[in-house]
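User: quick one, fold this
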Amino acid sequence: MKDITKQVAKIDAEIAALSERIIAKQTERETLITEATEMLRSLRSNYRAAPVPQPKVKQRFHPNPNPKRRGRPPGQTRMLTDDQVREIRKLGASGMAQVRIAEQFNQSQPQISLIIHRKIYGDVK
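Assistant:
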């Protein structure tokens, strides 16, 4: 029985020694982590990147001050008369190329397409 008690005491002493080593290693680890953190902070504070210049974007269109209002401002006349709009629609229905119609009326092809499909000048019958 005394032999077993001595062995238990020996194991307890070894455990205590190992516990002290573990605590010492944990303390050493925490110190290293603290030093590394401080080094990173000092590197970050010393490093100041030059600001990257942002390219100036030229606005192609002026923002609409009144987004609910659409179309031409009051008092500004239309570019085409009602008779010209009817003629454009008639030529488009007959199968004439929109580019040719645009050249004839001094307009762009997309403008002619909008007229033919009644996206603009919709009030003209």
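User: anything notable?
Assistant: The chain has four helices and no strands.
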